[in-house]
Amino acid sequence: MSFARFAARRLGEMAATLLAASFVVFGAMYMAPGDPASFLLAGRSASPEALASVKAQYHLDEPFLLRYGRWLGDVLQGDFGRSITYRTDVSRLLADRLPTTLLLVAMALLVVVAAGLFLGRLAAVRGGATDTAVLVTTTFAVGTPSFVAAVLLQGLFAVKLGWFPTSGAGEGFTDKLWHLALPATALALYLIGMLARVTRSAMAEALDSDHVTVARSRGVPERHVIRRHVFRNSLGTVLTTGGLIVSTLLVCTVLVETAFSVGGIGQLLELSTSTKDFPTVQAISLIIVALFMAVNLVVDLLLPLVDPRVTLGTRGAAA
């Protein structure tokens, strides 16, 4: 299968999945117990006329499929509706908060990739006591949930030592980096351990392969063997894990942003869920699903370029 054909097929699958996800996201509002109009009124009693006005404003008096079609048409034009809690357009809320979340995820991903690959490579190449130390360290990291790491890091480095701010996202790019340093570390800790273990296992398997033995028997310098034959052949497994890592970062950012009051879409999702701000919850949920699928698409397209043993349309090495 050609690259263009494969990419077109994956984009079509992504569009179909997004359409199905949008139906589920929109319908979830109406699966909640009670009348949606009562949630919109925040539990306040209202006259039949006021209730009818609310239903007309949010098109609750129309058939479900018609409401869904109207909402989907607005979403395709970038209109996610109006926030019930904040009394403003959801699109404006997302435009204000999404860049902060994306910067936080990017910082955490950079930390995960740098530390995870370094520790995994170090453990596989050195072995012995170094391998044991890395395994113990990564076991601790994997066993520490993001919200626990957030509380520990905030208590030590922000409250006790005062090296970092306790909350907020800062103003300006440099100030944002300083404010998001602790949240990014808390977000990355668990995933550093996971990536380090995956890298170590993939490189250890590559070290035992026949072509590595042949390269060493021919006198190829060890550093070239590690770089060209071991680490490179492990990148396919690492890249596949990278898709899971980015997806996990997007999910865990809700907890970390709430702990540090970062003000991104993760914290907004938590607040909107608790206040039953359905238009905002629907918009953020759909965006997170779209980001998940975009990450998987990028991984699928890059995997054959990184690992020639993988053919388009499959994940995993050829036997």
Automatic annotation (TrEMBL):
The keyword Transmembrane applies. It comes from Streptomyces katrae. Residues 98-299 form the ABC transmembrane type-1 domain. The keyword Mitochondrion does not apply. Belongs to the binding-protein-dependent transport system permease family. PANTHER family: DIPEPTIDE TRANSPORT SYSTEM PERMEASE PROTEIN DPPB-RELATED (PTHR43163:SF6). Keywords: Cell membrane, Membrane, Transmembrane, Transmembrane helix, Transport. The chain crosses the membrane at residues 101-120, 132-157, 177-196, 237-263, 283-306. It is a multi-pass membrane protein. This is ABC transporter permease. It comes from the Bacteria.
